[in-house]
Amino acid sequence: MQVAEIAWKQKNAVHFDAGLTVWRKDDPEPAFLALPPKKELSWTLHGPKRCIGSITASGRLERCPENSIVLGTGQKCGPCQAGDIADPCIRCDGRRCDAIEARKLQCDATTYVIYAVLFNDGTLKVGVSSKGRALTRWVEQGADYAGVLREIEGGRTARRVEDRIGRLQGITKQVRSERKTRALLDKLDMTAAHALLEQFMESASHLELNSNVELFDLSSHYTLKDLESQPSPWRKRSEPIDGKAIVGEIVGMKGSLMVTRIDTSIMVVDLRQIIGYNIDLDSDITLVTQTGLMDFF
Question: What is the number of domains present in the chain?
Answer without folding.
Answer: 1
